[in-house]
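Dear Dr. V.,

Thank you for agreeing to look over these. As mentioned in my earlier message, I'm a first-year student in the group and I'm still getting used to reading structure tokens, so any feedback on how I've presented them would be very welcome. I ran two proteins. I've put each sequence directly above its structure. The first is here:
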Amino acid sequence: MDSTSSEAIRGIRTVFEAVIADGLRRESVVGATDAEIDTALAAQGGSGAPSAVREVLRLVGRSPGLWLAGSGSRRADDDLRHEGERARDACHVAEPRHR
């Protein structure tokens, strides 16, 4: 991991901890495992995601609660799949699927 990735991860964690300190209940969100993140990315045709995106998913990727307003009514698997889609779209990491 390079210094830029480490800095990005520290930044994400700092923001997350600040939100927790401001009142978001830590137990109200559930993170995704690296395996779940990889599976969601692969399902969308992606092969990777930036370290900051992966860190967000590790913190809130399975069930984001109030972190992502309006997403609490979807199933956790759908949330993770949608996060994978957003990560792929935002980072242009996916190659077109060939059939």
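The second protein is here, in the same arrangement:
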Amino acid sequence: MYDIGKYQKQILIGFVISIFFLFFEASINTVIRGSGRLLSGSLSLNTFANISAAIALYIGFVTMKSQISKFWGLLTIFISILILIGSGTRGAFLALVLAYIIIYLTANHKKFVLNFLKVGIGLLSLVVVYFIASSNQWIPERFSVNEISKKIKVDFSKSNLSNVIKVKVTEETTSIKSRIDLFDSSLNMIMENPWTGIGVGRWNRYKNDYSISNRVPNVLLDTHNDYLALTTQYGLPLGLLFAYVIFLYPMVLHKRTNYKGSGPLNWLFVINFVMAIAAISNAGFFKHQVSAMLLFSMCCNLKMYTENEKT
């Protein structure tokens, strides 16, 4: 049988090199394009940031377990954070923080209450600092809750999502407005085709047929939500099954595995889990770079689980 465990070091080095390469090529691309945000030439902005966040947290756990030198581990995390800051992608920051919190809380059930209190105090402190920073305009408007809240109105008396959440379009809220319109169209697809979906690869073609007043631009787009991407095309039963296998199953396998040893591959589930949270505001799985990484991680977790079951 093929023993992937023999290549743990090489795989880990590959992830480290990938972050340095992404930062390097994005820096060059950004200078050439004269952009104010760090843009990758090979990945979309959101995917670029989300992959970096996922790898950053993975390397973080590997570093804490002393499975990589602290120098290279911390340097890789530093470069990843630079990518998140440079790209200005809010969802990637949130995915990174939420994934760490959930993994930390579920790591030890016996200390759940204590861990919950620690996380609660930490989050409360961060929220207080964030609101103070927003109120005093210490952070860019794109990240300021005060500025964003002024441009969003919610009316629960309406039925469609686009009418429930009204967004004044500005530079800071354009992505929010676009997502609401895309989510609205996708939800309408699911409501009309809950069991079979509209068919694989047909979302772009029919997105405006299900949107309210043709609010979705008639250009090549994606759902900006992996769960909606899967369920609109495959239907709820198959779409949710795919989502579970791709994003959550690796973490389930990790929890079930009684590892005899500890290595970098044991933590690959972290990448899938970060992307599971990022999938709420971004559709990355249908991009070949993301699907290859997630499926590779899932297969590694499955392989290690079956090998541990035999011993």
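From my reading of the second output: Strands lie at 152-154, 165-167. Residues 61 and 267 are 7 Å apart (CA to CA). Does that match how you would interpret it?

Kind regards,
E.
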